[in-house]
């Protein structure tokens, strides 16, 4: 069965594919890339794309059917003690912590040292929540994703890679 997709030609060097929150495949390709080449790439990755699509649709359904107040309550019970613990260990603390309904990012950190967590992070295991907490605290020191940033994360959470994978699994 052929997979339907939206094709966007752009000034770029490689073909990229992503599944949006509605389960639609978006393909970006270099200008002039033949359509049969794009379809060959899609076919080559079709099993993986189907898996991602199923995961995205499950995540959207779960998120849309969850009570934000319950999610925030769980997140506060899990994330806030972890934030205190790691703030103490790292010698840094956010100026403010807030909770949002963001569906495309689990956390963020501003230059004013404010950390936001998505309530939907509560749908993930505690190990994944702890990774996001440490990740955002590390941004208080390094506002990027450089080697120095990941060295900070690794120092305080040596198994961070295993935990990060949990954020990619179905909820």
Structural commentary:
The chain is an alpha/beta fold. It is 49% helix and 17% strand. It has helices at residues 35-44, 46-64, 68-90, 126-139, 147-156, 160-166; strands spanning 5-10, 16-19, 25-30, 96-100, 107-109, 114-118. Strands 1-3-2 form a three-stranded mixed β-sheet. A three-stranded mixed β-sheet has the order 4-6-5, covered by helices on one side. A hairpin with a 4-residue loop joins β5 (107-109) and β6 (114-118). The protein is globular, with a radius of gyration of 19 Å.
Strand/helix succession? EEEHHHEEEHHH
What structural class results from the helix and strand content?
alpha/beta
CATH class of the largest domain: Alpha Beta
CATH superfamily of the largest domain: Metalloproteases ("zincins"), catalytic domain
Helix share bin: 40-55%
Number of extended strands: 6
Provide a concise account of the structure shown:
The chain has 171 residues and is an alpha/beta fold. It contains six helices and six strands, in the order βββαααβββααα. 18% of the residues are buried.
